[in-house]
Write a structure and sequence with these properties.
Length: about 150
């Protein structure tokens, strides 16, 4: 079953758009066609659908009681906004998805995992400053936006 959609406001025109998980293409504004930030909260049942993407996926493994997670979360979301069309951000509460946390060998949080073509390519543990997060991500990001699906 497909995961629930998320409502995202276009950063260009403000139109509210429904964004669903999809393995191909990118979410674009229905009015002005600007790339939308693709930032989603996953559940245990939606996680596998959410990490399937034609662009790199940054997974934020977090928990509500984790202070460092609350520090990193705004930076992760900023990366999603700054790299709209080049990065998908998926946030997963490890307390509600313990089997997935075990599958990814989550030993400490916050944990950021980069997934490309369905496979983990890199990870970083702990609260890192924005400059370190940027320099870690940028080699993995596409320089061109994939074409619109036919």
């Amino acid at each position: 079953m497909a995961a629930d959609s998320t409502i995202t406001a276009c950063p260009n025109c403000g139109t509210k758009n429904r964004v669903r998980p999809t393995s191909t293409g990118l979410p674009r504004c229905s009015v002005c066609h600007t790339n939308l930030p693709w930032i989603l909260d996953a559940t245990a049942s939606s996680f596998d659908a959410e990490i399937t993407s034609s662009i790199p996926v940054l997974v934020d493994f977090w928990a509500p009681w984790c202070g460092p997670c609350r520090m990193v979360s705004p930076l992760v979301e900023k990366m999603g906004h700054d790299h709209a069309g080049h990065l998908k951000v998926v946030k997963l509460n490890v307390d509600e998805a313990q089997a997935i946390a075990a599958r990814y060998s989550v030993q400490g949080i916050p944990l950021l995992v980069l997934i490309e073509d369905g496979k983990e390519t890199d990870r970083i543990v702990g609260a890192v400053p924005e400059t370190q997060l940027k320099s870690w991500l940028e080699p993995h990001l596409q320089t061109e936006t994939p074409p619109l699906p036919s």
